[in-house]
Task: inverse folding
């Protein structure tokens, strides 16, 4: 299945070996979108590398910024004021909502419902991206969460809009559940398809909604709490079956949990400083740090090594999409060609994250 | 019952379709006459969500990051730029280039070149400027018919006059 | 109302009168026949233009968008723009293709499509030819496109086209059978095979209320015959096998496209004729009722297309053979039984309706049980895997 394909979320190539209709072997080939971001960032200062992190997984740019900021703060021992922490959590959960909407929408695009769920999901994405534009000036490449805090304080119209948006999004999630969850054709195509058993998932280092849909309760927000996530009450939903339907249901449940966290954060938002003073040519002490967060696609990690100069010595990110892709072969064996696209869509990858 | 899920889905789709017609009737001339501007702040699940681009344009939010523009002083009308070069050093992509004559306090700006094709509109240059000299405008219709993407000082000052901004960071709650 | 009712018939008589005045009898008759044929072809093409436009508008409105609205006021010239685009594309023939078959396939697919219009009753007394075995005519001509699709797949020198043609043939043949059986049920109730006679037999009650099971079977089989969602795997772009018409472009592709839409209107017309009562209803003129009912059926088909995802090919074939054919056969037996025992009247209607509802209920129950069993199996596999993981995680 060649690089130009309408359903592969980017430029991706899979070499399938078929026996009639059944898949016998699968080899993914990627690298079509490689831009050398890691090397380029090593020649820039820590502040100048923030726009590059936006472009790693372009759908969830705020969480990429978040992970990078946490990594730099651990490296240079920077304190973040509480208001900035709450703003970061709000942006992170909004990003999770955006990503899951897009994931569910494009899963149905691959299943063949002609763009209707996609358009419904994109409608609500537009509203959240309006909020991003209000706060940071740009809808997708936000460049907003910086090491030390956030780039600027929230404008006045942000909070009233957000307060009106949360019940609206609850209604939207309920409507999507009503519309899609019991569709018999969808169930016939997704129950039992792409089964990923829990032990194989952990053996392949899969994280994120894919892992939780296979039954393992592991969430970085609970396992190694970063920022102020230990002050919020939320559950970690899991599904047991580990097939395509379970991943879809998992994303819907996670959207509900994100809305819960959002309403708690909005109520408790404190006043105060929005950033701590960080010099623009930051020279962190020699050392290394690894920070990981629960990005919407899985565990996003940044590994930074500093040698005292303003440029990082080594700048590496752990892409959730690439590592989640490593189980694609096991999931697809024995299924038909039509299922390969559906399974690939249910893992929800973004090619920019794989190729960097 | 077995077929219930499909029927539920059909019901949702029908509600959306009828909802678009109902909304059209409620706001009658808006869709079919030119010059009606849509608002984005009505939170409703139904109704047409398209903005018909050349006739209806959304207003950008105040913090929107468009092309760069040079600002003039409000009273004297002189450009605020002192040719310090901070923006040139802050940009991650090498978009801005300055030609300066003289050193120290007698710096004179000869040319200020901004490469529109390479800019990613990240605003790091504006944040580094201490003299209120540059800001991001709301200009997003940036296509050209030929390959001349390098804007000189005059074009940037013209953009600043078009949007009539004199201080950086007005919408951002800080004055830099 | 009477004027409107007989509007087309009066126009036809007037034109006939014109020709009678200066031509001999047989020539006038010949000219009238040729004009009738041309009229049917024109109806087909106008229907195609109108329905491509309507489809895009309906899909757009369902997705909260405006459809095409730039080509002409409210976008009504969009279909003409599409037609011009298709006609001006370059006509490419692959080098190793079988030239005569390559040329013949699109021609062969459009001829039966238009021929079928001859038996559709557009109104009271407005039918092309009143063939008294019209149902057999429809089934026979509906099977010729299958042959031409196979020709198209074979003649393009492309193994993906051939595979696509195989799949199409499998799908269409499997769904011919429930369709034919449902048609037989209606013929049994009406007592005649001619379409005009079937419409006449529905003067008291439309057949959808007498045998809803036959209606459902015919509707679903018709959707599959038309290659529409949820059965449109051949036009899907998320499958690698791209379909039997992959090598066609320009006018030949336009022929395939036209044939699909002409068949669409024909299928909706047949559903209206067989089950919804054709042109029967009191107040409005009869051809207007036919048009309204057909457009309603077309709207329902488009509505289903927007909402529902696709089925996989093996699930589709098993649906045809394991679900539709048994239901259709059982329905045929039931209706034959009831029609033999009871006289035509309200008792027969109620008995047929009741037995059909019971039949549909049993079918849905069995299908539901199969899907629930699949879900149980997936859940058990998942739970076993989780237990295995946690056991191994605790042990080390």
Result:
């Amino acid at each position: 299945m060649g690089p130009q394909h309408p359903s592969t979320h980017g430029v991706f190539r899979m070499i399938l070996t078929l026996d009639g209709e059944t898949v016998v072997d699968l080899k993914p080939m990627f690298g079509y979108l490689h831009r050398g971001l890691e090397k380029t960032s090593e020649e820039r200062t820590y502040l100048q590398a923030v726009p590059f992190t936006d472009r790693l997984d372009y759908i969830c740019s705020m969480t990429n910024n978040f992970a990078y900021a946490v990594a730099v703060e651990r490296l240079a021992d920077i304190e973040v004021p509480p208001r900035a922490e709450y703003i970061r959590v709000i942006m992170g959960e909004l990003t999770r909502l955006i990503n899951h909407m897009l994931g569910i929408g494009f899963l149905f695009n691959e299943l063949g419902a002609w763009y209707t769920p996609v358009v419904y999901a994109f409608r609500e994405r537009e509203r959240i991206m309006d909020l991003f534009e209000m706060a940071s000036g740009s809808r997708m490449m936000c460049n907003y969460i910086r090491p030390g805090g956030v780039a600027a304080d929230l404008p006045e119209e942000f909070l009233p809009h957000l307060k009106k948006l949360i019940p609206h999004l609850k209604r939207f999630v309920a409507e999507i559940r009503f519309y899609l969850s019991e569709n018999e054709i969808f169930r016939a195509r997704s129950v039992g398809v792409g089964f990923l058993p829990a032990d194989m998932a952990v053996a392949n280092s899969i994280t994120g909604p894919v892992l939780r849909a296979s039954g393992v309760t592991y969430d970085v927000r609970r396992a190694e709490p970063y920022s102020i996530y230990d002050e919020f009450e939320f559950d970690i939903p899991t599904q047991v079956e580990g097939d395509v339907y379970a991943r879809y249901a998992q994303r819907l449940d996670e959207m509900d949990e994100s809305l819960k966290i959002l309403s708690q954060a909005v109520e408790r938002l404190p006043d105060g400083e929005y950033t701590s003073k960080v010099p623009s040519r930051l020279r962190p002490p020699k050392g290394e740090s690894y920070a990981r967060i629960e990005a919407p696609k899985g565990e996003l990690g940044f590994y930074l090594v500093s040698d005292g100069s303003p440029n990082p010595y080594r700048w590496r990110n752990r892409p959730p999409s690439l590592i989640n892709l490593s189980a694609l072969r096991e999931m697809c064996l024995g299924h038909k060609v039509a299922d390969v696209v559906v399974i690939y869509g249910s893992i929800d990858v973004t090619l920019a994250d794989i190729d960097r | 019952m077995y077929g219930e899920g499909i029927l539920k889905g059909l019901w949702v789709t029908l509600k959306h379709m009828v909802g678009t017609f109902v909304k059209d009737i409620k706001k009658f001339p808006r869709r079919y006459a030119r010059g009606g501007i849509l608002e984005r702040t009505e939170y409703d699940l139904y109704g047409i969500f398209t903005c018909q681009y050349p006739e209806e344009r959304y207003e950008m939010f105040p913090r929107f990051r468009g092309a760069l523009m040079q600002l003039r002083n409000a009273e004297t009308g002189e450009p605020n730029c002192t040719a310090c070069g901070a923006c040139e050093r802050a940009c991650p992509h090498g978009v801005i280039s300055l030609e300066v004559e003289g050193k120290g306090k007698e710096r004179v700006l000869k040319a200020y070149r901004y490469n529109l094709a390479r800019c990613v509109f990240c605003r790091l240059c504006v944040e580094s400027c201490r003299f209120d000299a540059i800001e991001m405008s709301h200009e997003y219709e940036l296509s050209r018919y030929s390959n001349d993407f390098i804007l000189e000082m005059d074009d940037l000052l013209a953009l600043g006059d078009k949007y009539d901004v004199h201080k950086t960071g007005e919408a951002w709650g800080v004055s830099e | 109302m009477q004027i409107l009712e007989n509007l087309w018939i009066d126009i036809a008589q007037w034109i006939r009168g014109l020709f009678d005045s200066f031509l001999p009898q047989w020539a006038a008759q010949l000219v009238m026949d040729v004009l009738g044929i041309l009229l049917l072809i024109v109806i087909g093409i106008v229907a195609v233009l109108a329905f491509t436009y309507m489809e895009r508008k309906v899909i757009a409105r369902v997705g909260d968008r405006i459809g095409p609205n730039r080509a002409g006021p409210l976008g009504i010239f969009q279909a003409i723009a599409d037609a011009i685009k298709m006609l001006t594309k370059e006509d490419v023939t692959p080098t190793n293709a079988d030239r005569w078959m390559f040329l013949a396939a699109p021609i062969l697919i459009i001829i039966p499509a238009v021929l079928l219009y001859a038996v559709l009753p557009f109104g009271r007394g407005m039918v092309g030819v009143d063939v008294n075995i019209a149902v057999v005519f429809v089934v026979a001509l509906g099977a010729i496109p299958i042959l031409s699709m196979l020709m198209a797949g074979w003649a393009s020198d492309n193994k993906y086209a051939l595979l696509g043609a195989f799949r199409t043939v499998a799908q269409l043949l499997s769904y011919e059978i429930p369709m034919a059986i449902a048609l037989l049920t209606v013929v049994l109730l009406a007592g005649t095979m001619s379409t005009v006679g079937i419409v006449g037999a529905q003067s008291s009650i439309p057949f959808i209320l007498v045998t809803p099971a036959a209606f459902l079977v015919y509707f679903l089989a018709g959707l599959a015959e038309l290659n529409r969602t949820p059965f449109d795997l051949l036009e899907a772009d998320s499958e690698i096998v791209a379909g039997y018409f992959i090598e066609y472009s320009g006018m030949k592709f336009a022929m395939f496209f036209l044939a699909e839409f002409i068949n669409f209107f024909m299928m909706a017309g047949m559903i209206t004729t067989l089950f919804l009562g054709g042109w029967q209803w009191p107040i409005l003129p009869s051809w207007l009722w036919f048009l309204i009912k057909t457009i309603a059926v077309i709207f329902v088909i488009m509505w289903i297309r927007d909402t529902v995802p696709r089925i996989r090919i093996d699930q589709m074939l098993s649906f045809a053979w394991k679900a539709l054919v048994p239901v259709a056969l059982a329905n045929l037996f039931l209706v034959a039984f009831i029609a033999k025992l009871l006289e035509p009247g309200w008792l027969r209607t109620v008995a047929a309706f009741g037995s059909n509802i019971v039949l549909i209920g049993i079918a849905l129950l069995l299908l539901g049980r199969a899907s629930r069993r699949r879900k149980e199996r997936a859940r058990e596999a998942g739970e076993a895997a989780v237990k295995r993981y946690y056991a191994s995680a605790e042990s080390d």
Notes: Chain B touches chain C at residues 1-3, 6, 9-10, 12-14, 16-17, 19-21, 31, 46-50, 52 (CB under 8 Å).
